[in-house]
Backbone:
């Protein structure tokens, strides 16, 4: 149970559990809809960063859909949702940048829609970005010594988007100045069509290049997206793209 200091207590009863005090900060769409930019809260010992969001936004149901795309920062460092909060922590909710017609644009997205590399780049653009590196992965027409006529991408979308976000957090941990957006396609795609777009911005190009390369390798390793390759003479599900790439590089 959470209790708010001051008059903004959404709960009717105070908790008797041991608590810690944390400072919450809201930005952009969250700040406007909640009507406040920050506040102090008392939360039970052991509360995680991710557990706070549905409570503080309970009065604004339309904000619930943002939870998967909002990133979390504790004391100005990105963290996962299972990060345990401590007394005196500052928890900031970092919403996605706004897209067309007021709809939120997602930094980490799995979609059946056609991918637009320029739109993904726009998600990470900033005045201090001296470099934006964009990687676009496309369906190739030959693999495993066979002609490829198309690929079927299937994803466990909620988990895949969560893992894409985790990659973004990993990148910030390695290269703090880098901002990342990743969009991945699902469905049937023919050769030449973009299946994934990764955009990384940074004040310096070296970090942006390194982050983009890191992201595509991690996608192959941890994101629950599968593909079925269709050939002129049959089709097969591909178990591990990372293992295949390692195999073709061996002498």
Residues:
């Amino acid at each position: 149970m959470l209790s708010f200091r001051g008059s903004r207590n959404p709960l009717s009863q105070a908790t008797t559990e041991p608590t810690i005090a944390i400072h919450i900060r809201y930005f952009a769409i969250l700040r406007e809809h909640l009507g406040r930019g920050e506040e102090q809260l008392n939360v039970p010992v052991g509360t995680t960063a991710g557990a706070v969001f549905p409570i503080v936004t309970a009065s604004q149901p339309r904000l619930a859909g943002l939870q998967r795309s909002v990133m979390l920062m504790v004391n100005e460092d990105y963290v996962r949702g299972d990060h345990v909060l401590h007394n005196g922590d500052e928890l900031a909710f970092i919403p996605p940048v706004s897209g067309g017609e007021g709809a939120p644009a997602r930094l980490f997205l799995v979609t059946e829609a056609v991918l637009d590399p320029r739109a993904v780049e726009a998600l990470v653009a900033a005045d201090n970005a001296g470099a934006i590196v964009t990687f676009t992965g496309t369906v190739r027409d030959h693999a495993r010594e066979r002609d490829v006529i198309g690929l079927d991408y299937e994803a466990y979308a909620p988990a895949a988007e969560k893992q894409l976000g985790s990659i973004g957090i990993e990148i910030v941990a390695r290269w703090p100045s880098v901002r990342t957006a990743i969009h991945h396609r699902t469905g049937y795609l023919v050769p030449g069509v973009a299946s994934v777009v990764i955009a990384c911005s940074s004040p310096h190009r070296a970090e942006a290049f390194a982050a983009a390369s890191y992201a595509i390798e991690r996608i192959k390793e941890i994101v629950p997206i599968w593909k079925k390759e269709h050939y002129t003479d049959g089709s097969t599900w591909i178990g591990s793209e990372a293992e295949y790439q390692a195999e073709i590089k061996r002498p």
Q: What stands out?
A: Residues 157-174 form the longest helix (18 residues).
